[in-house]
Amino acid sequence: MSKTEGGCLCGQVRYSFQGDPAAAMVCHCTHCQKQSGSAFSTILGVPEGAIQVSGETKTYHDAGESGKSVERIFCPNCGSPLISKVEVAPGMAFVKAGTLDDASRFEPTAHIWTRSKQCWVDTGETPAFDTNPG
After folding, report:
1. What is the DSSP secondary-structure string of the chain?
2. Which CATH superfamily groups domain 3-116?
């Protein structure tokens, strides 16, 4: 079982998890756009109990476009978004792929919340969903 590690920009917060993610997705919701400061957020779905976090974090309690609660965990020092937990996927945590030490082995298998996607983003051949899949 492989170990994946990552952390925030300043290095104050580090995390790791064992095993392969259950999902690798690109979220285009407006809240992920605002949190990432970009057109989308690339995320890895990992069982919540598999993630070990060291260092102080803060949590912003949000309601996503779905109206369901979202916990957005970030470094209080540098502001890097690290992990999100969403009400629609209990027991899962969504690691922000941009904070991985090496994200090269993960490729998104779906685009979600594409109804909020920026018009210049091309999802290519990857399956795309207007909101959450399922």
Report:
1. --EEEEE-SSSS-EEEEES--SEEEEE--HHHHHHHTSS-EEEEEEEGGGEEEES--EEEEEE-TTSSEEEEEE-TTT--EEEEEETTSTTEEEEEGGGBS--TT----EEE-GGG--TT---TTS-B-SSS--
2. glutathione-dependent formaldehyde- activating enzyme (gfa) (3.90.1590.10)
* pLDDT digits (tens), the chain, 134 positions: 689 999 999 999 999 999 899 999 999 999 999 999 999 999 999 999 999 999 999 999 998 777 889 999 999 999 999 999 998 888 999 999 999 999 998 999 999 999 999 999 999 999 999 988 86
Name the pTM for this structure: 0.90
